[in-house]
């Protein structure tokens, strides 16, 4: 092993030890990622270096990029603090009931066809008579499917002030229904649960369903029709975000089919 290779192995081992120090169980992480604990011990001690495949699995589990794993210690600590995705095992201490945990960590394999970016359209609870359009992404992060939603608006209807919407969450697919649970990043305690299905079973280009918002500060929950239109897996994000808007419900800039779907009543069947 060359000196540079040895140094890289030492840095990687130190960064792995740093990352694992934030986990409740290294063995639990090994089970989730699919690694042998003895092999992981070799990685942690610097006696061995992960293959490119295993490095990608470890990085995905920790919510960072594979190349970050060999960053100098100070840089790695900074990356760790700034990362968006929590390590999957960080939720182990919450004792999530096993059926729910399995649903979130092992959604049906068909969820892969839902990964990508979407323009979401939903009735506004804050501005009656308006539709909010924002961007949502669904992607893999270790064993999870995570979501991010973003909408930037130069002016909202009542005050004309700029408005920013940011949410993060998780998704699972059970049967034919895609379920997404998100929290509003700028308003902790505000949760939304969205249940969607494709308009046509074999086509994920247009999804329709119901979103239930549970606002913070004691406000009543609100159920609304929601429609997602696929933007593909590698859209022009700048253009997609620039199309975010708070629009009158009958605006000509909203696709007619989306308008019809949004107009369908929210049914509660006993």
What secondary-structure arrangement, pairings included, does this model have?
Layout: H1 3-20, H2 26-33, H3 37-45, H4 52-62, H5 73-82, H6 98-105, E1 116-123, E2 130-141, E3 144-153, E4 163-174, E5 177-184, E6 191-200, E7 203-214, E8 222-232, H7 237-242, E9 245-248, H8 256-263
Antiparallel strand pairs: 1-2, 1-8, 2-3, 2-9, 3-4, 4-5, 5-6, 6-7, 7-8
Helix pairs in contact: 1-5
Protein name: Transcriptional regulator
GO molecular function, one term: DNA binding
Domain HTH cro/C1-type: 31-69
Structure report:
It comes from Hypericibacter adhaerens. GO terms for molecular function: DNA binding. This is Transcriptional regulator. The protein has two domains: 93 residues, 434 Repressor (Amino-terminal Domain); 155 residues, Beta Barrel (Lipocalin). It has an eight-stranded antiparallel beta barrel with strand order 1-2-3-4-5-6-7-8. Strand 2 and strand 3 form a beta hairpin. The protein is of the alpha+beta class and 270 residues long. Helix 1 packs parallel to helix 5. The longest helix has 18 residues. About 4% of the residues have low confidence. The radius of gyration is 21 Å and the shape is elongated. The chain contains eight helices and nine strands.
